[in-house]
Protein 1
Amino acid sequence: MMDKKKKAGIIVDVLMFALLLIQMLYVFTGNTAHEILGIGFFACVVIHIIIKRWWCASLFKKRESKRSKLRLTSDIITVLLICCIIALMLSSMGVSRLIFPWFEYLGSADLHRYLATAVLSLAALHGGMYFIIRAKKKKKAITLTALAVIAAAAVGLALVPYMNRHFKKVDISLSEKVSGDKAEWTGGRVLTVYFTRLGNTDFDDDVDAVSGASLMIADGELMGNDQLLALMMQDITGCDIKPVTITGKRYPSSYNDTIGVAMDEKRNNARPAIEKIDISGYDDIVLIYPLWWGDVPMPVATFLEENDFSGKHIYLIATQGSSGFSSSTATVKKLASGASVEEVMSIYCDDIPDSRQRLYEWVKNR
Ligand SMILES: Cc1cc2nc3c(=O)[nH]c(=O)nc-3n(C[C@H](O)[C@H](O)[C@H](O)COP(=O)(O)O)c2cc1C
């Protein structure tokens, strides 16, 4: 019969792994549940380490015989996992809005996501190594473990972000997300120029407002991600905002078809015609754009080439599904001749509705 300690250990391990998977589905659980379940996860980790404390002691023990290669690999994975869990715990506090709002370090949501994915994959490996080492029929155990690790990594790396972006409906209250503290724009006169799919696309009536489609519903109306950011900038600073709007053929309603069209445009270095935007009365331009194929969308390239930016400052805010600023900064520097160009922030598409505070802090402290 299995003793009580062992049973408790297995229950904690299963709970820990289940919590880790649930935590990856942040967009479905929401922030409050995510933070509370996060505490539960770290509590399970602490209990797991207490139960396995013999392993920590064995790490530093002098050995008569050499550690087998398998055990050495397993120990390295475990040490790495513990380091990542500690970093994840600190970054959880850094991004916390509910339980640890006073913790001001490691506040990057991107870092938090990367660490969570690393923990998930290493945890799967760590569990796998445990079974391999103990398995009598090694071949079968290795195959099963390899499958489990691939499945866990696939869930963490691909399936969760895919589900988040393609099945999560984004339905927001505009006043709740956009209105708030004001900050004065110091320096010159400022204009926010943004590009978004909405206004440049003939959407079908039944298009899905999911974050992966770069769309949301705000107060019952369709809204573009970057449009929402522009409205936030306007509310914070009182600045004028202007969209980049194409005048020719519009983009297709389907997200995937738009990807194809955008690829052709980038390949051909196209300059789609746009409505004129007069920037002559402004010193500072805040340029908000989605990354399209790691670059500015080609209509934004048109805007940059058509205007005289001599002596002006351009502040870049990119939105993206993973890629930071990619090569967009270099493109803006090349096309907006005479301007000084500064990267401000690159926002992951799921984080856009909750980005007002970041924008406000930037304007206040710049
Ligand atoms: C045509 C197209 C290409 C894209 N290319 C990238 C890319 O290269 N890298 C990335 O991280 N995200 C990419 N995305 C995701 C968008 O940058 C992201 O969803 C953005 O928030 C969309 O903003 P919008 O709703 O204002 O159009 C692409 C989206 C589209 C539609």
Protein 2
Amino acid sequence: MTIGIGVDIIAISRMRDTLETSGKVFMDKVFTPWEQQRAETHPDTVAYVAMTFAAKEAIFKTFGIGWHFGVQMTEIEVKEGEYGEPIPVLTGRFAELAAERGVSRVLLSLSYDGDYAVAVAALSGGQ
Ligand SMILES: CC(C)(COP(=O)(O)OP(=O)(O)OC[C@H]1O[C@@H](n2cnc3c(N)ncnc32)[C@H](O)[C@@H]1OP(=O)(O)O)[C@@H](O)C(=O)NCCC(=O)NCCS
């Protein structure tokens, strides 16, 4: 059963500006240590950051919530599987909300080309 869906698109050039003006603060606020390390080793760091930020926004949207729920962007971690497929992992308040809603799986698909990075996410659960 689908519990929620979310989509997001990010202009990579805008992300480049953000990283130039507030790189460390932004990275610490949004990305886990593992993601920050992955950003450094990725062949296109800015595209990776834009795509992963889009992933977090898309997953945020699947819940249809606001900041007053006490969630943080670092409670969504986008890991990578054996073949490079994104594997989202929820922790903290996001994990609690997922449990409350009967979410058994977070699905995520990412892409980037030219100046844009996009993410589509879905929450599934139940039968
Ligand atoms: C809710 C949120 C994800 C929307 O993302 P966005 O990139 O600003 O907005 P987009 O242009 O991609 O999409 C906007 C649409 O998303 C939908 N939307 C708005 N709030 C939503 C929510 N809480 N949940 C699901 N969908 C939402 C609406 O249809 C909205 O259209 P509208 O603005 O015409 O009403 C974003 O505002 C947010 O709160 N993000 C988390 C906080 C964050 O990223 N902080 C920055 C850390 S430094």
Protein 3
Amino acid sequence: MSSMIASDYIEQVRKNGYVLIKRAIDPSIAQNLLDFATSFEYSDVERDALLKNQQRLNGYGNNIFNIALKRPDILPLFIRDVQGEIMKGLLNDRYYSSIPADLPNYIMRAMLLRSSLGAMPYHIDSFIPYQGDHTSVVQSAIFLNNSTIENGCTLLVPRSHLKGEYAPQGDNPDAIALEAEMGDIAIWDSRIWHATLENTAKTDRWALIGTFARWYIKQAFDYPRAISDQMYESLAVDEKIVYGYCSYTPLNEFEKTELKTGIDNIKRPSNSVKSLLPPDSFLFS
Ligand SMILES: O=C(O)CCC(=O)C(=O)O
């Protein structure tokens, strides 16, 4: 990795909307993830179910969803060390005082493995275009193959995150092709106009893409309920926060009334309204 420090990378994301960190991941970790990507297969039944409710943009790649639950060892790659400092710098809410500032208070929206097929159209992943320095959603792509113009690399329009507009469709003369090598990481503000090229080489171009968001933004899956008891027990505090255990939506006021819970009160969410109620509650009647 280069000698740049987290604050330099944060500065680049704020200014240009993205940064590429060379050789950020140990090659053996990248190889292990690549082996996972190339050996994983959904069953036919699972694939049919996934195709029935596929979002438009997911049709342009091979996708393996929900990696965080398939590989519980992976989240620390995104939230510790320099990566973690960058995420905190871009996404921590400075007014979230019940979590100490050296921990994350942002959450994970999604984590998927994707390999490019067709040319993915320009889009933003913050869903809301707006101007200003306040970043709400960040994507971090760990490249597991070399990512090239031939095999469908990312296209980005530098500084477009500050335009406050949805991404125009069609070719964009201001776009750059973000070529990268196995083990590099690209981090971008999800307001940036981005797309991919078509994979004309028809070779694998796997990237592990983590999407992280401020604590009040909806997660792609209900991680606090979906995570097994066994996985929950193995998580460190920073992982529990990022999976949403401090900021999930409670079932009712007897579960909690705080939107931002502190680390002293991390617990699994309830699945049963009744178990939360005092026995004489009017909600029973
Ligand atoms: O695979 C890429 O380079 C970009 C993927 C992308 O745009 C996305 O997942 O939203």
